[in-house]
Amino acid sequence: MATLSFYEGVNPSAGISGDLPTQFIEEERLNRIKHSAWHFPIRAILSCLQTSAVELGDLEAIIYPWDSPMYSDGRLSRFYADLNRQYGSDSETLQWQQANISRFDPGSVKERLRRELLREAGIELPSNLRFAYVPHHVAHAFSAVAGIEQARALVLAIDGSGETLCTSVWLWEHPELRLIWSRPIPHSLGWFYAAITELVGFDAYDGEYKVMGLAGLGTPSQSVVKSMQMVLHPGDDGISYFLDRSYIHAGAHSFSTRFTDKLPSLLGVTPRARRARMEDAYIDVAAAAQAAVERILVNICKHFVSRYRPEIVCLTGGVAMNVKANGAVLTETGAPAIWVPPYPNDSGTPLGAMAAYCAATGRLMPDLRNVFLGPYYDDGVIEKQLITAGIPYSRPHDVLQETAKRLASGNVVAWFHGRSEAGQRALGARSILGDPRSPAVAARVNNVVKRRERWRPLCPVILEEQCTRYLVDARVSPHMMVAANATAEASAEIPAVIHADGSIRAQMLRPDDNPEFSQLVSCFKELTGIGALINTSMNRAGQPMVETALEALELFGSTAIDVMVLGPFLVEKNGNGHSLDLS
Ligand SMILES: [Fe+2]
Is residue 346 in a domain? Predict the structure, then answer.
C-alpha cells in the first residue's frame, strides 16, 4: 500500500511512498515559478501518482505534514489567545492567526485537494480516503532521521514556525522520536533571519542564503553586535533565547511586514531598497545577524550533545539551509557527526510525514539516503526531443571521458542525468559543472550563465577520498549543506570554489550516492589530478532548477554554456558562441 503527502506554503511539494520506490518533487520544478509560494502542489501530486502508477483509490492514506486537528478543536485558538495576552497583538497578527485557523482546518485541507484534483485532472477525491496528520516539526525531524544509519540521534528542527513551535530538540532512538526541549512562537530564528533578509534588501524566504553569503564579508562593530543582541538575546540558562517582538511584529511597519521601524533605527541603517547599492553597513548587519544565530544554535546543540551523547546530530527546518551555521554546529559543539537532508526546509516535510506515519504504524520508513526522487526520463524520449528540435548531437562511446576532457579544457558543461534530485542543491542530476582550478571558469558560470551576485560562492563536488585534502573538517556532508574551512591545498588547487571567508560548501561524493557522477569526477581527476568540480544548479538566477530535457536544452540554447550532456548524448556549441536555434 502507498501513502501520499503534500505540503502547501512556501516551496510546496508532494511525495508518494510505500511498497514502491519513493517519488518526490517540488511544485516549482513543474510550474516553473521559483518557490511557488502558496501555490497548491497539484502538479507535484499528479506527477507522483502518474510516475508511481498509483490511483487515489489505491492509497492507504493521505498524510498531511501539519497538525490540522489542532486548528479545528480549539487548541490553536487557545494558544493564540494566550500569546496575545502575553505579548499583545495588532490587527495584522490577528489576521494572520485567523487565516491560519481557517487554512489548516482539516475540512479546508481536504476541500482544497478535492477541488484542485477536479479542476486540474477531472479526478474525484474518493470520499472514504483516510487523512492522517503529522505535526510540522515531527515531519521535519523524520525527514532527517529517515536518511541516517545511526540508531541514536539528536535532532534540531529550526524554522519560521510550525503550529506553535519555532525551535524543537528531539532525541531519536530508533524507532522512537521524543521531544526534549522547544521554543514556541514568537521566538523564531527563522522570523529573525527573514527580518534581516528584508532589511538588507532581499525577499524573505528567498534571499536568506544571500544574507549568509554576505555575512562572510562583514566585520560588524561592537555596537552593531550589541544592538543585534537586543533583538535576539540569549537567556541565562545557556540554551534559551528570546526574540523581542517589538523589532519584528509589534509596531509600525513602514517598509516591510517582516520588521518594525524600530529595527533599522536600532541598527543605524535605513532599509535597503532592492536595487540600491550594497553598502558595507548592510554587510555588517548580515554578519552580526549570522553570528547571533550561530551562537544560539551552537549553545543549544552543545548543551544537548553533552547531555545525551548522540551518535549524530541532525539539523532540519528552514534555518538548517544556513550551511555556515551548520558548519559551526559541526565544529563547535562536540557533535560526532552531522546530517542535514538536502530538503531541510518545508518542502521536505511530506517525506518526513510519510516516514513518521511508517514509524507510528510499525513499518519500515522510506530510505531517504537516496535523493534522486524526481520523475524518470527515458533516453529514447530525450533523443526524440533532440531530433525534433533539429539539434546536432553525438552519442560518444565513453561519454564520461569525453565530458571530463571538455571540463579539463575549460568548458562550462551542463549535466542532465536521470531522476532529478530533491531539494535546492544540484547533486549531479541537474548540474552546471566547471573546472575548479579556474577562477575564469567560475566567473563565466557566475556572470554569463547564472548572473549571480559577486558575493555568492560557487560550490564544488569533491570525491569522498579527496575531502581530507581540501576540507579542514571533512566529516560526511553529501548534500552541500555544511560549510567547512578550506585547506592550504584547496587554496592552491581549487581556488574557484573557495568563498571570501575561506570556507567551502562541498558536496562530498561517495560512489554509491551517484555512480555515474562519481565516475565523471574520477575521469576528471585522471586527466588533471583534481578530484573535484564546480557544481552549481542548472538554472538561471531567479528560476527553479530545470526538470525536463527540453528545459535543459532551452537553457543551453540561451546561455554561454559550452557543452550539454543529457544521459548518453552530448551536444556542443559550434565553438564561436552562437546560440542554438530551438524555435
Ligand atoms: Fe518548517
Answer: no
Q: What is the mean pLDDT of the chain?
A: 94
Same domain? 191 vs 312:
yes
Compute, in angstroms, the gap from residue 74 CA to the centroid of ligand 1.
22
Instruction: Give the helix ranges, DSSP H, for 431-475.
Output: 439-443, 467-470
CA 388–ligand 1 middle distance (angstroms): 43
Name the amino acid, one letter, at 388.
T
**CA 104 to centroid of ligand 1, rounded, Å:** 14
Cα 190 to averaged position of ligand 1 atoms, centre (Å)? 9
Average the pLDDT over each of 23-27, 458-462, 501-505, 572-576 and give the range with the smallest value.
572-576
Kindly give the distance from the C-alpha atom of residue 138 to the centroid of ligand 1, in angstroms, as a whole number. Answer: 10
Tell whether 130 and 156 lie within a shared domain. no
**Ligand 1 centroid – CA 86 distance (Å):** 24
Domain end among 360, 388, 405: 360
Per the CB < 8 A criterion, the answer to whether 445 and 434 are in contact is yes
Enter the pTM of the model: 0.95
| Cα separation, 196 vs 220, whole angstroms | 14
**In this predicted model, what pLDDT tens digit does every residue of 52-64 receive, in sequence order?**
999 999 999 999 9
Q: Which of 278, 310, 340 is the last residue of a domain?
A: 340
Whole-angstrom distance, CA of residue 315 vs CA of residue 91: 34
CATH number at residue 550: 3.90.870.20
Residues with CB under 5 A from ligand 1 (ion): 159, 346
CA-derived radius of gyration, the chain: 23
- CATH number of the domain bearing residue 12: 3.30.420.40
Q: How far is the CA of 378 from the centre of ligand 1 (A)?
A: 34
Q: Are residues 126 and 162 in the same domain?
A: no
Residue 85 Rama label (left phi>0; alpha psi -120 to 50; beta): alpha
Q: If you measure from the C-alpha of residue 317 to the centroid of ligand 1, how many angstroms do you get, rounded to a whole number?
A: 5
Q: How confident is the model at residue 123 (pLDDT cuts 50, 70, 90)?
A: very high
- CB 306, CB 241: distance < 8 Å: no
Percent of the chain at pLDDT > 70 equals: 98
Which residues constitute the domain of residue 300?
A: 148-340
